[in-house]
Write a structure and sequence with these properties.
Blueprint lengths: L1 E5 L6 H12 L2 E4 H10 L3 H11 L6 H13 L7 E4 L5 H13 L6 E6 L2 H9 L1 E4 L5 E3 L19 E2 L6 H15 L3 H6 L3 E5 L4 H14 L1
Parallel strand pairs: 1-3, 1-4, 2-3, 4-8
Antiparallel strand pairs: 5-6, 5-7
Helix pairs in contact: 2-3, 4-5, 6-7
Bound molecules: adenosine monophosphate (AMP).
The site of adenosine monophosphate has 17 residues, from α2 and α3.
Length: 216
């Protein structure tokens, strides 16, 4: 299976992708994670991408499509892929079709996570994660059980993404509306789009995704 999880920043794409990885042995291909790793490692791509990401703008189509192509090339052909945060523009959607064909794959499903923007801003600006293992937390909805101690690994350092502030989040949402949402009709014409309520509790969204996969 090759699936795109589509939705604005904070819709739960990352959360749902990691659950699919755990339950189905699929592979999460998150261009945001790949770019953050490149920024942390200060690779040439990372150095170029950092300012663009901090401003909530889009990194070039060529760079992100090359990252996806390289990941797919290194994967077993039988391992399913979940595209998380890619494609984000019409050019990337076209590139993905070509890349998948080159690797003998086809797009099976697009899952759109529909959301309320103001609620999303609250979700995103409150999120933080363990600096050691990456476990995700939230100021209001998921604090660690023991103050300042990671539930999963016990570490005491936490971090926030530099682009998770309100100004940048609003910018990223505007870009989603203007650049990313317009790729949906093309997928709708192919009859592969399923729209889910991304504001529902995490477990409910997961159950809805599982139900979709069961019928695929
Ligand atoms: P994300 O973690 O998916 O929210 O991505 C964080 C940031 O990385 C975005 O705001 C963009 O600056 C950049 N980025 C991630 N994926 C893409 C993509 N497919 N195309 C362009 N820029 C991207």
């Amino acid at each position: 299976m090759n699936i795109i999880l589509l939705g604005p920043p904070g819709a739960g794409k990352g959360t749902q992708s990691s659950l699919l990885v755990q339950h189905h042995g699929m592979r999460q291909l998150s261009t945001g994670d790949m770019l953050r790793a490149a920024v942390a490692a200060q690779t040439p791509i990372g150095v170029k991408a950092k300012a663009i990401m901090d401003a909530g703008q889009l990194v070039s189509d060529e760079i992100v499509s090359a990252l996806i192509d390289a990941e797919l090339a290194a994967m077993e052909p039988t391992t399913g892929a979940i595209f998380d945060g890619y494609p984000r523009t019409a050019a990337q959607a076209d590139a993905l079709d070509a890349i998948l064909a080159r690797h003998g794959r086809q797009l099976d499903m697009v899952i759109e996570l529909a959301v309320d923007e103001d609620e999303l801003v609250r979700r995103i600006t409150g999120r933080f994660s363990c600096a050691n293992c990456g476990e995700g937390y939230h100021d209001t909805s998921k604090q660690p059980a023991v103050a300042e101690t990671c539930d999963r690994c016990g570490a005491h350092e936490f971090k926030r993404r530099p682009d998770d502030n309100e100004g940048t989040v609003r910018k990223r949402m505007q870009i989603y509306r203007e650049e990313t949402a317009p790729i949906l009709p093309g997928y709708e014409q192919r009859g592969i789009v399923n729209r889910l309520d991304g504001m529902a509790p995490i477990e409910q969204v997961t159950a809805a995704i599982e139900a979709l996969l069961a019928t695929a």
